[in-house]
Write a structure and sequence with these properties.
- It is built from 11 helices and no strands.
- By secondary structure, the chain is mostly helical.
- The longest helix has 34 residues.
- The two termini are 23 Å apart.
């Protein structure tokens, strides 16, 4: 366990030295909250997707994609600088490395969630609208853990497979997909077949379940509820999470063997 903790501390120091965590992981979610609040205010508040309670789960899920980017960068750099190759000769096992990276991603993700919740709360005070109860905030955090874990392991996977030049580019594709296919600020429920397609990916179901917890309304004025969309989506989320974990373990072990 000490090996994991020491490796985690080292990784955390590396991440905190990189300005990307402050710009994208923390600053960007705040900027997005403010942007959509202003847009909604000047459109007479007629966009349910831009309401605080609806934006909160969407921006949380979208912000997790930057956790993936951060981890992909640090893992690919460690591989490129032969830092990992030198450590492979130590008594550390593959799970020590993976857990060390995972804990950093978990820390960043939970910090992002906290930033999003605080920002949403402040905006709700300014807009004089209701906000989520403490109990539902905790439930929201728990409900979003699977998509956070998926992003963490995808980040480790991309960092393991690709170099430090390619990994960020691959992650940018997934960041775009999370925003477009997640319905973070788009009324996907009005798009018919496109919504059906999005149900089979982890992004939209994660946002959907989050909006059930925050008691939001969709673009059709219907309050989100646990229905077949949420049920099918939950299966998709779990399958993607398990797949990302398995693929990461396989890729990392293969990389360790080839680099020894």
């Amino acid at each position: 366990m000490n090996k994991v903790v020491n490796f985690y501390k080292r990784n955390l120091k590396e991440v905190l030295r990189d300005p990307i965590i402050y710009i994208f992981c923390l600053g960007f979610p705040i900027a997005m909250f403010l942007l959509f609040y202003i847009i909604n205010k000047f459109s007479n508040g007629n966009t349910p997707t831009f309401e605080v309670l609806s934006l909160l789960p969407g921006i949380i899920v979208f912000s997790y994609s930057f956790v993936m980017l951060t981890l992909a960068i640090i893992v690919s750099k460690d591989k490129q600088t032969f830092f990992l190759k030198r450590l492979y000769s130590s008594p550390m096992k593959s799970y020590h490395f993976i857990l060390g990276y995972f804990l950093v991603g978990l820390f960043i993700g939970l910090l992002q969630t906290l930033v999003c919740v605080i920002t949403g709360f402040i905006i709700s005070l300014i807009a004089n609208v209701g906000f989520v109860s403490i109990g539902n905030i905790l439930l929201l955090i728990i409900a979003q853990l699977p998509i956070l874990i998926t992003n963490i392991f995808l980040g480790i996977l991309f960092g393991t497979i690709f170099n430090d030049k390619s990994a960020p580019g691959i992650c940018s594709v997934f960041i775009s997909l999370a925003g477009i296919l997640g319905g973070c600020w788009m009324p996907i429920e009005t798009m018919g077949g496109f919504e059906t397609f999005c149900r089979f990916l982890p992004f939209y179901p994660s946002v959907y379940i989050g909006r059930i917890i925050t008691n939001s309304k969709n673009a059709l004025g219907i309050t989100y509820s646990f229905n077949n969309v949420a049920g099918l989506g939950l299966i998709s989320i779990i399958l993607f999470m398990i797949s990302s974990i398995i693929l990461t373990i396989i890729a990392f072990k293969k990389n360790m063997v080839s680099d020894k």
